[in-house]
Design goal:
The strands form 7 sheets. A 5-stranded antiparallel sheet has the order 9-5-6-15-14, with no helix packed on it. Strands 10-11-12 form a 3-stranded antiparallel sheet, with no helix packed on it. Strand 10 and strand 11 form a beta hairpin. The relative contact order is 0.20. The radius of gyration is 26 Å and the shape is elongated. It is built from 2 helices and 18 strands. 27% of the residues lie in helices and 35% in strands. The chain is an alpha+beta fold.
Length: 246
């Protein structure tokens, strides 16, 4: 009887973890560049005796769906989308972080920053700074940034955006707001193409996530009822056993 309770409890814990991940996906439905996550489960068969066996459900971790989201044209010359693999490096208070969100702007000092104010870095981890009178900004597919400044019409190179790629994207640690912490050294992608005036949308599909949420919620309720029934069965068995031994 105790084994059945342990099995049900392990399943309940796994469903709780799955619900947390789904809720986070839904919350980031409109977060630029966000990648949906899913929980991977595994089961282990335990045989305490040749005649008895119990199957435990274990949470094996959270996996990221790295499929590219759709692009939306914004018309903002500082917005950039990455076509292919790669992440933009940004400087945060906690160190360099990486993001797929290319919704950029300029701060009061002319630095290229994210929508939340973190400085965007180039391939050498240097801040990208624009002249105060920069105009007609162009960003090439290779990340080269050029603009006109001053009284003349000469075009000067401002800097170069870089898309860093990782051997194992699943190893990236999500730190919230579409930012990731690297646990391995990245390399500048040679294949990624940058698209000016567009951003990558979240790859979360709202209807699918809501359907998953309903399925997990119903499964959790079923397990809760089974667990309650099992606990009542154990209490009844203990009571009967007490009468027999008494």
């Amino acid at each position: 009887m105790q084994g059945a309770s342990l099995v049900l409890t392990s399943y309940q814990d796994s469903l709780h973890a799955a619900m947390d991940v789904i809720a986070n996906n839904v919350a980031n439905l409109n977060t630029t560049g966000f990648k949906r996550e899913t929980v991977a489960f595994d089961s282990y068969l335990v045989q305490p005796t040749p005649k008895d066996s119990f199957e435990f459900v274990l949470d094996e971790g959270t996996y990221r769906d790295i499929a590219q989201g759709s692009f939306i044209t914004t018309g903002n010359p500082l917005d950039v989308a990455i076509q292919g693999s790669g992440y933009f490096p940004v400087q945060t208070d906690a160190g360099v972080r990486y993001t797929r969100s290319g919704s950029f702007q300029l701060d009061f000092e002319g630095n290229l920053v994210t929508s939340s104010g973190e400085k965007v870095l180039d391939g050498g981890n240097q801040v990208i700074n624009f002249p105060s009178d920069a105009r007609d900004i162009l960003i090439g597919g290779d990340g080269t940034i050029s603009a006109k400044s001053g009284a003349g019409s000469a075009v000067t190179e401002v800097g170069r955006l870089a898309a860093f790629e990782f051997k194992d994207e699943q190893a990236l640690v999500s730190v919230g707001s579409g930012f990731y912490r690297a646990v391995e050294s990245p390399e500048v992608s040679e294949t990624a193409q940058l698209m000016q005036g567009a951003v990558e949308q979240s790859n979360v599909k709202g209807i699918e996530e809501m359907t998953r949420m309903i399925e997990v919620s119903r499964a959790y309720q079923r397990v809760a009822r089974l667990l309650e029934t099992e606990q009542q069965r154990q209490a009844s068995a203990i009571k009967r056993l007490g009468k027999i031994t008494g």
